[in-house]
Design the sequence.
């Protein structure tokens, strides 16, 4: 061990978080309809598998890009040889047009301002390296994606200070919460370099309101800090209110010639909207030329392959396909979310009203044995080991209130989702019955105690007659 670095041997990767531990338990005993029907169903993975048929249909109709050909001629050699880290112009152009289309073409992007990276994980880390020194801090609203503890902090040395949001207003960001987080960081002698938000939110499955976005822009302007808007779920918005990109808001506020314009940055990926996490296609977008230049150099440590860029530039340039895909994918997400919510309701469980994402923020506070995070972990373990569903506890997302869980719905078949809801309902019913039985038992015990006490009292000899 002495031959390895502290970084290699330390535990700051947060692999021991319950978020990752649930995955490990799933991998030991994964559910399979025929081979392992009693296994654990994976509901902790935010993956979009609902529209693969649309992608596969396009590939079948367009064999050249998938076969690394152009006009029937192989370009394998061209793609296999060295490419610089700026990326293929055709792909960057197709990607920004796809990003604009998702946003209803209310905002356009400059291909010169986008930097490709191996997924949103890499893009977020690059921004940390560009914007902050080790020991500096970013403010993040809770609850937030558990992977940020790894992505933002592990190699960069940047600290995360939570903006405490609560269920009282649907976990929306408030001016008070922002200021309290900033003051808390200062008390810890941390220099705040910016705020990072996910919009739509992971794990809430909600889009940010105009009020929240305006609040954030006003806040970073007043504090002279950065804002990173992670918008990797922007194409998953399936019902109102619609999605408002931070770039759209800046343009509505005529911020183009202000300092704020250069201090707002967007992270995007094709992992969620197209369901291609294995392709490792992410990007960051900034109006600051210095950030773009530095990030481009840093991206050499996590490039997107030329083969991937060539294939996807052809797919995303097919406007008829992208329009149909975005619309159909959102319809399917809406229907699948409705199925999950309905199943939860039948089990007596509610969730935060959501309009985006691949998951729901589920309220199981009434199932806790006490209002503590210890009770939350106790419930989580029962759901993983007994019910055999891997869901993510709110504590792994730094939620301030015990009893909330993130439950994913788009990474499985409709049949598997139905089975998971059957399992959950059976568990809730048995828990409720046990609780009711215990309540009746306790009530009888109290009644018996009172009767024995009364009988004992009635049988006592009168004072003075011994």
Sequence:
């Amino acid at each position: 061990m002495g031959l390895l670095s502290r970084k290699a041997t330390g535990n700051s990767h947060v692999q021991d978080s319950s978020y990752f531990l649930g995955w490990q338990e799933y991998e030991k005993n994964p559910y399979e309809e025929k081979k392992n029907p009693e296994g654990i169903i994976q509901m902790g993975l935010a993956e979009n598998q609902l529209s693969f048929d649309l992608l596969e249909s396009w590939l079948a109709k367009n064999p050249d890009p998938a076969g690394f050909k152009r006009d029937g001629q192989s370009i394998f050699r061209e793609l296999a040889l060295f490419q610089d880290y700026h990326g293929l112009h055709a792909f960057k152009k197709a990607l920004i047009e796809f990003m604009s289309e998702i946003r209803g073409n209310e905002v356009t992007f400059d291909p010169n301002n986008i930097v490709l990276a191996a997924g949103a994980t890499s893009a977020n880390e690059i921004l940390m390296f560009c914007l902050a020194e080790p020991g500096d801090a970013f403010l993040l609203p809770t609850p937030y994606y558990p992977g940020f503890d790894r992505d933002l902090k592990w190699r960069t040395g940047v600290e995360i200070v939570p903006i405490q949001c609560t269920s009282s207003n649907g976990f929306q960001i408030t001016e008070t919460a922002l200021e309290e987080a900033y003051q808390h960081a200062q008390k810890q002698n941390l220099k705040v370099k910016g705020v990072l938000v996910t919009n739509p939110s992971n794990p809430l499955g909600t889009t940010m309101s105009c009020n929240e976005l305006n609040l954030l822009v006003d806040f970073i302007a007043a504090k002279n800090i950065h804002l990173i808007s992670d918008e990797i779920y922007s194409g998953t918005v399936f019902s109102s209110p619609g999605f408002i990109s931070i770039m759209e808001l800046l343009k509505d506020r005529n911020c183009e010639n202000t300092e704020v314009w250069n201090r707002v940055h967007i992270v995007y990926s094709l992992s969620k909207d197209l369901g291609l996490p294995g392709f490792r296609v992410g990007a960051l977008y900034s109006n600051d030329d210095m950030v773009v230049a530095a990030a481009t150099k840093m991206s050499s440590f996590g490039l997107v392959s030329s083969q991937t860029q060539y294939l996807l530039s052809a797919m995303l340039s097919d406007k008829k396909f992208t329009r149909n895909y975005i619309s159909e994918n959102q319809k399917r997400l809406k229907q699948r979310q409705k199925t999950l919510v309905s199943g939860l309701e039948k089990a007596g469980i509610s969730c935060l009203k959501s309009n985006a994402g691949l998951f729901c923020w589920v309220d199981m506070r009434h199932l806790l044995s006490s209002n503590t995070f210890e009770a939350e972990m106790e419930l989580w373990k029962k759901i993983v080991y007994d019910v055999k569903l891997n869901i993510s506890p709110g504590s792994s997302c730094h939620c301030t209130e015990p009893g909330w869980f993130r439950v994913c719905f788009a990474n499985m078949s409709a049949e598997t989702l139905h089975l998971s809801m059957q399992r959950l309902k059976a568990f809730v019913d048995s828990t409720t019955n046990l609780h009711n039985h215990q309540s009746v038992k306790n009530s009888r015990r109290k009644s018996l105690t009172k009767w024995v006490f009364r009988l004992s009292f009635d049988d006592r000899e009168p004072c003075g007659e011994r």
Notes: DSSP finds 16 helices and 15 strands in the chain.
